[in-house]
Specification:
The protein is mainly alpha-helical. Helix content is 50%, strand content 4%. The chain has five helices and two strands, in the order αβααβαα.
């Protein structure tokens, strides 16, 4: 069930697997876990907000490739260090960087 300790662990394990220079979306993580736990992008976002500080959180973005503005500066530095493809807007270029998780 989304929100359980098992769900939190499953989300964090997926985030830890995202390769350097790549990114995935909250929705892609939710899709990978749906059959086992249910839930959607908001539940993944909630897990990341509460427990995501110890994993590469900048590699999980919105469907348009953006992060909340409060995370922008720190994430941008990580993207530059990892060579993550970016669009001119500063958002992740998901056409070039998307990593699709599996459960």
């Amino acid at each position: 069930m989304a929100g359980s300790a098992e769900y939190v662990e499953a989300v964090l394990v997926i985030v830890e697997r995202i390769p350097r220079g790549r990114a995935t979306t909250y929705g892609a993580i939710a899709d990978a876990l749906f059959d086992d736990f249910g839930g959607g992008p908001r539940q993944v976002g909630s897990v990341m907000a509460r427990y995501g500080g110890g994993v590469p959180w900048w590699r999980v973005v919105r469907a348009d490739g953006s992060l909340p503005p409060s995370h922008g500066d720190e994430a941008r530095q990580a993207y530059l260090e990892e060579g993550t493809p970016l669009r001119p807007s500063g958002a992740v270029d998901l056409r070039a960087a998307l990593w699709v998780p599996t459960s």
